[in-house]
Amino acid sequence: MGLFDVITGRRKLKQPAPDRLFAMSTAGVTLETSMGLHSSGKAAIVFQPLATADFDAILTDMEEVVRGTGEDTGTTVDKSDDQYGYRWMILADPDFEDLVVGVNGVSTALQGGGYGERILTAVFAFRDAQDRHVYWIYNYKRGTFYPFVPAGGAQQRDSERELRLKAQIGADLPVEAELERWFPLWGIPI
Amino acid sequence: MAVVMILLGALYVGLVGALLTSGVNGITVALIAGGLAAFQLFGSDKLALHAMGAREVSPQDAPELHAMIERLCVQADLPKPKIAIAETRMPNAFALGRSPKSATVCATTGIMEMLSPAELEGVMAHELTHVANRDVMVMTLAGFFATIAAYIVQFGFFFGGGGSSYGDDDDNPSFLVLFVVSLVVYIISFFLMQALSRYREFAADRGAALVTGRPSALASALMRISSGMERIPQQDLRASKELSAFYFFPPGAKSAIGGLFATHPTMEKRIAALQRLEGQLQGQA
Fold first, then answer.
1. Which structural domain, as residue segments, surrounds residue A149?
2. Quick one: which of B200, B244, B179, B176 has its CA closest to B5?
């Protein structure tokens, strides 16, 4: 944000950062082979649904497109709204690469409709050897990934595990450098 | 609030003036004035939180408020601020802190009970926009410059006034004249500051509407709060007037003499601006 924006207080909403989502498809292999995390076959993309007529139309089109490509790749699509008013498009596919492609399809459709700034995050769900949930969250505004490991119990996260995951993944993923931006998402529906 | 702020400013200017006339050198005076402004900038947020009876809450204490603000932070591309709750029935919210990294956002228990989640989200987005716009910094600096302006007037009189006629005692302005002139300068800058504050409230409303994508939710929050404010006992309002520049909705706004004195625009104007935004949003179709 420039000095002029500070003085006038007229900020614009940040558009998505240059897309680094596909770093996940290659990193998925590393996660599987050397870190013992296997995909639970689901991913989700989270955005703010706006109450405007054209937004509804774009959503309907987007769902049709994703469902259409899903018939070829075997990806199924579901949606749900969380208690804070955000919409989750939930994709299920045993093939991890198809999940990344599906998530990218949703975000491309929203950006194409001019609503790219409404996309918050994409979430990729994994299970470790003990069958515990491990999530990798992609922040669209910043183009970075960060790990999120719920620790059981109310609003508890396993920060130690998350930091270890960051060290293990190394340079395979662009990991968010500022720890205060590792925003948790409680009650992830996947 | 307005009278208190004018008096405070007058006291500040008077102090600097008195220090100057009593022969303390200019650099020391500048240091003291700067020191007070620095204290305002760096130390006042803890003081203000304490004065409001607010306490910081963990994600376990207030999971929903935390989750709501975290999502807004992702959307507004901000680091997460500290979150505090003040135990008072008065429905209000405010933001403190000179930079986004050291910011605190506070909501009262009253506002959390009164508003629906979407409305509360609008209010919190308004406060986060204050944080993003660095409004505490801007207003503190503006206040500091106002004081400097008055100080320069004094300084000019003190050194320039007698420049052309050495030894002629009658030409030197008395302390009273000096004081009155700097006071006038101060009062003018005071009104400019209030205008700046009102402008930044509009900017924060606009920013909040952008972040949530729901201008009408914020407008409805404003309406609900303003009708709620009238039902709240007067003691609550009086006890909390000092902090009103930081508030989402100024207590006792109805009794303000005129728009000039107000730190916030009137509710009608804010709602009208939000409705224009909603119109633009819908007009994208």
1. 19-176
2. B244
